[in-house]
Amino acid sequence: MDKEVAVQSLTDTMAKFTSYIGKRLPTDVKQKLADLRTLETNPLAKSIYDSMAENQEAADKLDRPSCQDTGVIQYFISAGAKFPLLGELEEILQNATLGATKIGPLRHNAVETFDEKNTGTNTGSKIPWLDWEIVPDSDAATIDVYMAGGGCTLPGKATVLMPGQGYEGVVEFVFDVITSRGVNACPPLLVGVGVSTSVETAARLSKRAILRPVNSKNPNANAALMEELLEEGLNEVGIGPQGLTGNNSVMGVNIESSARHPSTIGVAVSTGCWAHRRGKIRFNADLSYEILSHEGVVL
Amino acid sequence: MKKILQTPIKDEDLEDLNVGDVVYLTGHLVTCRDVAHRRLIEQKRELPVDLKGGAIFHAGPIVRKKDDGKFEMVSIGPTTSMRMEKFEREFIKQTGVKLIVGKGGMGPETAAGCQEGKAVHAIFPGGCAVLAATKVEEIERAEWQDLGMPETLWVNRVKEFGPLIISIDTKGKNLIEQNKARFNEKKAPVMERIFDQVKFIK
């Protein structure tokens, strides 16, 4: 493929995919919401789940963004060092965001800080936000698209604990964030927790955590135990959909971690709302692709 | 039977409502969020829409301009109401607004404002933006368009817009604050139990 044609092809695919994920939830989230709806017995909470399901059907049928807040667009890229368009990817994703904004249509959500002007295009300084991981010896690229809405971004919080506070301090931090600020962020939430060495490393991992499938488990046994304990514990609090109380609180809790300084425990929480709009797509070197997050998609 | 409020809303329409009640709205619903609140309260600019007896929606929609120059409501769900807590009490006082629709709870200042001004705050289920858009019959006006799509005051004519769950009533009762207190009470013993199982530092 001619390089110019290849750039155009990847831009078009990413524009369509970015727009698509604003209209239809990923398969794992859809399934989890259906399960939670079935498990709910509180009448008001049940009616909220009904409204949510009705909304998703209408969005699909009318081909419209299911939530008006289509967020700031973030791309999390795991690119092979030999992916042929590695150097072009940044510009491709900028243009894909411009394209998706027209196709969606997406709401204009990029406000230049300090100038305090909405750019009207969903692009701006460092927006769409790109997060990079380079995979050695690979010529493929996997891209996670995430629509970071205002509501689900607001609870975000990070801090550095002293080791004396231990993992108990992590538990307390997560509970405090979810039962205070999480209540307004369109629960049932997918809770991402980063346990790491400093604020920014923990924060990045907490966001990566909500890109993982809802029912996935951390490979470390202790971390997986903590995911389970936090999920059960938060559900016991009974926040319910929209904070109106109910049998459950969260879609799940995912933890990502790194090694840490012996004197610090960095911890962060990121939350995804019930309308958790993310998508995962993998491109091969010839730009053939596979959508991993949504079953049965035709772009 | 559906309880339907109609703008202009009168004090007596709201007196019997309690937190947790579900109502619907027919009439006019004006989007009004962060900057519009700031302009009225801090910058003392006059709102371009008369809200006496009216209803506002904490929302920043997706709107499409049609070929005939009219606007089409594509997607309109509520935004986090708590962001307007700083301004809402004074906003109710100055505008005479009766119904504030949004997402999540608001704080004690808004609850006091609702009591003083005989107004209510109600929750529309967050994220259900297409459902909401289908209840908008027409966008009649668009004011302060210099603020961009999310912050423009979109004047919507709506029919049976809802469900709206009353979260602050005219008595100043606050559903989400009550719920939060309940969550905080419940969480202490749950956390205690988890603490024993996460003593990974030995």
Task: Provide keyphrases for this structure.
A: alpha+beta, 60s Ribosomal Protein L30, Chain: A, five-stranded mixed β-sheet, four-stranded mixed β-sheet, 8 helices, 11 strands, B: alpha/beta, fumarase, five-stranded mixed barrel, two-stranded antiparallel sheet, 9 strands, 29% helix, globular
Concise description?
The complex is a heterodimer of chains A (299) and B (202). With 299 residues, chain A is of the alpha+beta class.
Descriptive overview:
The complex is a heterodimer of chains A (299) and B (202). Chain A has 8 helices and 11 strands. Chain A is α+β, with helices and mostly antiparallel strands. Chain A has 2 domains: 3-23 and 66-149 and 277-291, 2-Layer Sandwich (60s Ribosomal Protein L30, Chain: A), CATH 3.30.1330; 153-272, 60s Ribosomal Protein L30, Chain: A (2-Layer Sandwich). The longest helix of chain A is centred in the N-terminal third of the chain and has 20 residues, at 43-62. The model of chain A has no long low-confidence stretch (mean pLDDT 97). Chain B is α/β, with parallel strands linked by helices and 202 residues long. Chain B has 6 helices and 9 strands, in the order βαβαβββαβαβαββα. The longest helix of chain B has 21 residues, at 175-195. The radius of gyration of chain B is 19 Å and the shape is globular. At the A-B interface, helix 3, helix 6 and helix 8 of A face helix 5 and helix 6 of B.
Greatest interface and its participating residue counts = A-B, 61 and 54 residues
CATH architecture descriptor of the largest domain in chain A: 2-Layer Sandwich
The helix-and-strand class of chain B reads alpha/beta
User: Per DSSP, what share of the residues of chain B sits in E-state strands of 2 or more residues?
Assistant: 25-35%
| Shape by Cα distribution of chain A | globular
Shape of chain B: globular
The SSE string of chain B, one letter per element, is EHEHEEEHEHEHEEH
What structural category characterises the helix and strand content of chain A? alpha+beta
- The CATH topology of the largest domain in chain A is 60s Ribosomal Protein L30, Chain: A
Strand order of the largest sheet of chain A: 4-1-5-10-11
Q: In angstroms, what separates the terminal alpha carbons of chain A?
A: 21 Å
> How would you write the strand order of the largest sheet of chain B?
2-3-6-7-9
